[in-house]
Specification:
The model has no long low-confidence stretch (mean pLDDT 81). The strands form two sheets. Strands 1-2 form a two-stranded antiparallel sheet. The chain has one domain (35-134). The protein contains three helices and four strands. Helix 2 runs antiparallel to helix 3 (88-109). The protein is an alpha+beta fold and 136 residues long. The chain has helices at residues 2-5, 7-51, 88-109, and strands at 62-67, 77-82, 122-126, 129-134. It starts with a helix and ends with a strand.
């Protein structure tokens, strides 16, 4: 009844409800981003564990894994791994999952960065371990 006598009150209540809804959505989004960031850390650790020591006899056993994404495109980092890894498909799928989650986090946080694409580095077999040694 009060809203009928005071039409401005109805608009104020609607704006307040919308603000509370937006606040709730913002909190939920922040919680999701935080969960995604925790998942990224866990996936990164899992990927590094799968790569392990990356054993090699020579450089033909070494492979390059593009991981993550930069805001302007291209991988966020490159990791060296051995072709002797038992579950290469699983490793590559984990890297893809990591990249997709990182894209979601960047989009949710509106992350922008300098547009520098990371060049693909060279690989070497150093002390019987695959290593990223330099950029081309």
């Amino acid at each position: 009844m009060a809203a009928t006598r005071r039409p401005w009150l109805r608009g104020a209540l609607t704006r307040s409800a919308a603000a509370l809804l937006a606040l709730g959505c913002g909190v939920a989004r922040a919680q999701q981003v935080s969960a995604d960031e925790a998942q990224l850390e866990a996936l990164h650790a899992e990927i590094l564990a799968m790569i392990g020591d990356a054993p090699c006899v020579n450089v033909v056993h070494c492979r390059l894994l593009a991981l993550g994404t930069r805001p302007c495109g291209g991988p966020d980092e490159y990791l060296a791994y051995s072709s002797h890894i038992a579950n290469r498909a699983v490793l590559e799928n984990k890297a893809l999952e990591y990249t997709l989650i990182q894209e979601d986090v960047q989009r949710a946080k509106s992350i922008a960065g300098v547009c520098v694409v990371l060049p693909e580095p060279r690989l070497a077999c150093v002390d019987r371990r695959c290593r990223v040694v330099s950029e081309p």
